[in-house]
Design goal:
CATH topology: Rossmann fold
CATH superfamily: NAD(P)-binding Rossmann-like Domain
Strand content: 5-15%
Number of helices: 7
Bound molecules: NADP nicotinamide-adenine-dinucleotide phosphate
Order of helices and strands: EHEHEHEHHEHEHEE
Distance between the termini: 39 Å
Strand order of the largest sheet: 3-2-1-4-5-6-7-8
Structural class: alpha/beta
Helix content: 25-40%
CATH architecture: 3-Layer(aba) Sandwich
CATH class: Alpha Beta
Largest sheet: 8 strands, mixed
Number of domains: 1
Number of strands: 8
Oligomer: single chain
Low-confidence stretches: 1-5
């Protein structure tokens, strides 16, 4: 772990202490971003960051807690004064044990609070730090094909609804930020072997991260307001 060089572009990855978020953070750090691992538990975050390459810091952030988000934004502003890339990755409750009619709506509400409103809350707090007009400003919402209305069945209802809502957030933010040149896209990482995806998943965290990173690396005249996996459009 090293301190931020003042000139490096700054990237924030939420939920970066494990899984796809950690793999995305590792890659961004290697690519030259000062990378902020935004994590609920800084001890676990420091453990996750200990052998990452490049310039990395760890900051406390609970995306479901408005005060935590406000504090995080203040610290980011004080330490870096800018943000270039925001990866809204944190998520919970792939609720495969539920069906729509039997679903515990408390679980559904918690899921929406983190997966959809969390990304919205963090975006509201951090976009003011992205108004510097440098090239390469991106918001990537880590979504899932589970949130595609086209293919939606009865499975994992809270999670599916949360990702559909996250996709709507992508459309809303992309529309508002188009004039600022900030590109906003949803990305599905595929089925990835993490705590959420389980050990049977065919993709590694690095492979899932590659799908996410595509939306960071697109050029400034690239797509905004889209939904992609591996750089290919997915149906809403
Ligand atoms: N794995 C898959 O097959 C798959 C497929 C499609 C989409 N995705 C999406 O990919 C993203 C990453 O998933 P993953 O598989 O890497 O999941 P994961 O291994 O379960 O990791 C989830 C991360 O989110 C963090 N998190 C949860 N609630 C948070 C909160 N309130 N504030 C801040 N951080 C919070 C967790 O932190 P703690 O360690 O503190 O709990 C953890 O770091 C998610 O958006 C997920 O929906 C995954």
């Amino acid at each position: 772990m090293q301190e931020s060089p003042k000139t490096a572009p700054v990237a924030v990855v939420t939920g970066a202490n494990r899984g796809i978020g950690r793999a995305v953070a590792a890659r961004l750090a290697r690519d030259g971003y000062h990378t902020v691992l935004a994590v609920r538990d800084p001890d676990r975050g420091r453990h996750a960051a200990r052998d990452l390459p490049g310039s990395v810091t760890v900051e406390r952030l609970d995306v479901a807690d408005a005060d935590s988000v406000t504090d995080f934004a203040r610290r980011l502003r004080d330490r870096h004064g800018r943000l270039d890339v925001l990866v809204n990755n944190a998520a919970i409750n792939y609720d495969t044990w539920q069906d729509p009619l039997g679903a515990d709506l408390t679980v559904v509400r918690d899921t929406l609070e983190v997966n959809a409103l969390g990304a919205w809350r963090v975006s509201q707090a951090l976009v003011p730090l992205m108004r510097h007009r440098s090239p390469g400003r991106r918001i990537v919402n880590v979504s899932s094909e589970s949130g595609s209305l086209t293919g939606m069945g009865a499975a994992a209802p809270g999670y599916a609804m949360s990702k559909a809502a996250l996709n709507a957030l992508t459309r809303l933010l992309a529309a508002q930020l188009a004039a600022d040149g900030i590109l906003v896209n949803s990305v599905c990482p595929g089925w990835v072997a993490t705590d959420m995806g389980g050990p049977a998943a065919p993709r590694t965290a690095a492979e899932g991260a590659a799908s996410v990173l595509w939306a960071v690396r697109i050029p400034d005249d690239g797509p905004t307001g889209g939904f992609f996996r591996d750089g290919e459009p997915l149906p809403w």
